[in-house]
Specification:
Radius of gyration: 33 Å
Helix content: 25-40%
Number of strands: 28
Structural class: alpha+beta
Strand content: 15-25%
């Protein structure tokens, strides 16, 4: 039903195999906003991968959420992809059009005993959720309706039950991620998730699985923030009896400050990058280098990227979006761009250049080196498009007075009587001789001429400017300056900086007076965390960077000095750790760490072991000590020096490796936390 269109770039079909299905990738954005940079990079990677293997690249709009749907956003996404040059094959798939199919699959899963109707009221579930929150535990549906008979009639009168998948309760769900490596998640941490709402509408997780299956998607390439969705989707694949696609979760894009890219870093829509004067080939080149590499190659064509692109070249580390690097790359592609296309691109942004095509063609080689964006290119060409009388900068206008004015009078007379060639080569000796005859240095002639002809004190060479502007225009602009017709633009005044006002702010991180008698340990919030992703710190060979699920809305990013003690194989997604979650974020080699992973170590610090929660500990639950009571301080508020200095001296393992504080055992609902081989050792 989706006839492929002819790709615009070559592909490497030799990589394919007659025995394996053709590669099919997809980009599946939600229509709630523009095509931001992270989405554009994902779409590009899916496109390059499909083209490399001679496969197809599909576009699916995930519009099942009618309340958030925005058709303008669909247009913005399509326009952004078109500008970027990432063209999909076949028709756009609208997820909302497949609702009936999603419902059919859900009903079949019920019939096969792989899903069930849940009659629990919102009030009951809210109560269970509040109870879990009160006990500092992640909420998991308890399976109340899991084993009800098919003909069950709800005594409470519920006629619009939701449908839940029956998730396995034992073992692990694991996959070999094509970017992150093997990831394994305990099935007890996977909920009986809802796949069909009470009104019959499918949830995201069901719709994605059904559509990927029906579209014959072979490779799902998406951001690492989707890792937590993958085991849940695999449960649905397994229940439906379908083979799941290969998954590759690419790292997120960060700003220069190490934080996830957001609007404040420049995470704006692709169409805005076009309006800022970036070329699509520059953006393709730049985005392809964010967490992917081919050796040391920095500048390469899209054809080369297609030839080289596989997920083997992807790193696990987040990349930093750097405007300066993008601008430098854009400058390269501006220099490589043909004059006709370059003019058309500038004209699209600034239609006022339309009458000056001939002059732009003449000036192209003098404008290219002066521009890193198309807007800067147009700005460098202001002297071409300016209307008489020009507006002169204050400094340029000053150069056209006094002796400068006399120079311009002489130039007007000289050019009015000149009938030779109008080329830079012919004009240079003419102006040089004029200066010599007047006993002036060349700069004393060039500066007032530059001011009169361009309105500035900086421009391309004066002979090239004269050549491009043309004889009559040069004479007219010089005469305007002599006659004082120009408006003068005053230089912007520098406002004096005000001294910052000192405000009496409450100090964060200190224990509140009301809790003065509270045991120091309880002011910390130590939780069971699950590593969902790990990568080497890009600037330090001593640090691991981790994404850790601690039962919050989003995983935390933490840096730990464990590179010397744990290999990549040992320190990977799926491992549980103990994390202090209410410390103030701290910079570690430029990476903002939002927590601290607890470890035991020997006195020399030559051996370090992770403090391990017991088997069965729930992700997000608090690590407590019997007999100690007290609410922890707020997240991200505890200064290390204010609390840890009172806790760490008494935090240690006992003779059996059990974690303790002042003799009290640190434990979860499943038992005590331990260090496997570190006995009678300090914890930090």
């Amino acid at each position: 039903r989706h006839a492929p269109s002819r790709p615009d770039f070559p592909s490497n079909r030799a990589e394919g195999s007659m025995s394996s299905p053709p590669v099919v990738t997809r980009f599946a954005p939600s229509p709630t906003g523009y095509l931001h940079i992270g989405g554009a990079r994902t779409a590009l990677f899916c496109f390059l991968y499909a083209r490399h293997f001679g496969g197809q690249f599909k576009l699916r709009i995930e519009d099942t959420d009618a309340e958030r749907h925005n058709e303008d956003a669909v247009n913005a996404i399509c326009q952004g992809m078109e500008w970027l040059g990432v063209k999909h094959d076949g028709d756009i798939v609208r997820q909302s059009m497949n609702k009936t199919r999603h419902q059919e699959v859900a009903q079949q899963l019920i019939a096969d005993g792989k899903a069930y109707k849940c009659y629990c009221s919102k009030e009951r579930l809210d109560g269970l959720r509040a109870e879990a929150e009160k006990n500092k535990l992640p909420f998991r549906y308890p399976g109340t309706c899991r084993d009800l008979p098919a003909d069950h009639v709800d005594p409470g009168g519920c006629t619009d039950p939701v449908v839940r998948i029956k998730a396995p309760t034992e073992g692990n769900t694991a996959w070999d991620d094509e970017v992150q490596g093997t990831i394994s998640v305990p099935n007890k941490d996977i909920d009986d998730l809802i796949i069909l709402r009470g009104d019959g509408s499918p949830t995201y997780l069901l719709a994605v699985v059904v559509d990927d299956h029906d579209m014959q998607i072979t490779n799902v390439i998406r951001g690492s923030d989707h890792i937590s969705n993958t085991p849940r989707q695999m449960v649905i694949y397994e229940a439906a009896g379908w083979k799941h696609p290969k998954f590759g979760h690419i790292p997120l894009i960060h700003g220069a400050d190490g934080q996830k890219l957001s609007k404040r870093h420049g995470a704006i829509g692709c169409e805005q990058y076009e309006s800022m004067g970036y070329l699509p080939e520059a953006m393709r080149n730049y985005l392809s280098r964010l967490s992917w590499a081919h050796g040391n190659d920095e500048i390469f064509s899209t054809e080369q990227a297609i030839e080289w692109f596989t997920l083997d070249g992807c790193s696990k580390s987040p990349s930093c979006f750097d405007f300066d690097k993008l601008k430098d790359l854009n400058a390269h592609y501006i220099k490589e761009c043909g004059k006709d296309r370059l003019f058309d691109l500038v004209k699209k942004l600034r239609p006022d250049v339309a009458p000056f095509k001939a002059q732009f063609d003449m000036a192209v080689d003098m404008l290219k080196p002066r521009a890193k964006t198309l807007l800067e290119y147009r700005e460098a060409a202001d002297f071409i498009c300016a209307k008489r009388p020009l507006v002169l900068e204050e400094k340029a206008a000053k150069g056209c007075t006094g002796g400068g004015k006399d120079v311009l009078v002489g130039i007007v007379e000289l050019l009015q009587g000149y009938s030779g060639d109008w080329t830079p080569e012919a004009l240079e000796p003419l102006v040089v001789k004029f200066a010599e005859d007047k006993g002036l240095k060349l700069g004393q002639v060039a500066q007032p001429m530059r001011g009169a002809l361009t309105g500035t004190t900086a421009s391309p060479g004066i002979y090239e400017v004269m050549w491009v502007v043309g004889k009559e225009e040069v004479i007219g602009r010089c005469q305007d300056a002599v006659d004082g017709k120009n408006e003068i633009k005053a230089a912007p005044k520098k406002e004096p900086k005000e001294a910052p006002k000192k405000e009496d702010k409450p100090k964060k991180g200190n224990p509140a007076p009301a809790n003065a008698d509270q045991p120091e340990y309880t002011k910390l919030e130590i939780k069971v965390g699950l590593l969902t992703r790990t990568w080497h710190h890009p600037e330090s060979d001593k640090l691991w960077c981790e994404e850790i699920d601690v039962g919050e809305e989003k995983p935390r990013e933490v840096a730990s000095g464990l590179r010397a003690f744990y290999t990549e194989e040992d320190f990977k997604a799926g491992r549980k750790v103990c994390v202090v979650t209410n410390l103030k974020p701290a910079k570690m080699a430029g990476f903002e760490s939002c927590g601290m992973v607890l470890c035991a170590a020997n006195a020399e610090h030559t051996k370090v072991e992770l403090l391990e929660p017991p088997e069965g500990a729930k992700v997000g639950e608090r690590v407590v000590i019997d007999g100690l009571e007290g609410e922890p301080m707020q997240p991200n508020q505890v200064a290390k020096k204010s609390i840890l200095k009172y806790v760490l001296p008494d935090l240690k393992t006992d003779a059996a490796g059990v974690a303790t504080w002042k003799g009290g055992v640190m434990k979860t609902s499943a038992g005590p936390c331990k260090a496997p081989t570190m006995f009678d050792s300090p914890i930090g």
